[in-house]
Write a structure and sequence with these properties.
With 201 residues, this protein is mainly β. The strands form 3 sheets. A 7-stranded antiparallel sheet has the order 1-6-15-8-9-10-11, with no helix packed on it. The radius of gyration is 16 Å and the shape is globular. The two termini are 26 Å apart.
């Protein structure tokens, strides 16, 4: 992918953008979350993304987070439309035993969070983010070949231009360096539903 077409939403202080490789060193107390359960609103994580009008596509990226070691440290794939409409998929560090592999969908200013526990020694994860008009899918993979579904969702403001890419943040008093490689935009790998009608492509 052409990195020159990507733009920052909240450019971080420390980062490296090279051909095919991006490094983001997170700053403490950065996060993305809106209202639900915790009641607070955090909207200061750096996001590096590109825009497209294409209604059907997939975006894959490999994330590496070897130095992630503090609660809530995270990095992953994101679609950030505005402060109240976005989604993300990531591994979020919890403690020396486990982490949260999960996704957050935020529609009209309210976030939800769906997770599953994975071992704390996992330090790489692939993501595939797919669009079918205003519906979206996030998948994950340990090897970049076999992907498993994490989330299917509808974005109420997700029609028209979509902006998607990567993010990294450290919600508490910590910092780590996230590395992103193997970014690729392809035809949509998330196929049309087969079974009940209407099954419209």
């Amino acid at each position: 992918m052409d990195m020159k077409k990507f733009q920052w939403v909240r450019e971080p202080k420390n980062y490296v953008v090279q051909d095919g490789r991006i490094e983001i060193t997170t700053e403490p107390h950065t996060d993305l979350w809106q209202r639900t359960y915790y009641h607070f609103r955090n909207d200061n994580a750096p996001v590096f993304q590109v825009e497209t009008e294409e209604p059907f596509f997939s975006f894959t990226v490999k994330t590496s987070f070897e130095s992630s070691s503090h609660r809530f440290d995270q990095c992953g794939v994101v679609m950030y439309l505005d402060s109240e409409n976005w989604l993300k998929g990531s591994v979020e560090y919890e403690n020396s035993e486990y982490q949260h592999l999960g996704s957050v969908v935020t529609n009209h200013g309210y976030s939800d969070w769906a997770t599953t526990a994975i071992p704390a020694d996992v330090k790489e994860m692939w993501y595939r983010f797919s669009r079918r008009q205003d519906d979206y899918c996030i998948e994950c993979s340990r090897d970049g070949i076999k992907f498993s579904q994490m989330r299917i969702c509808h974005m109420w403001e997700g029609a028209g231009a979509a902006r998607f890419g990567i993010y990294a943040c450290s919600p508490e008093d910590s910092s780590f360096t996230a590395v992103f490689t193997d970014m690729e935009m392809t035809e949509c790998m998330w196929g049309a539903h087969v079974g009940q009608k209407p099954d419209i492509e």
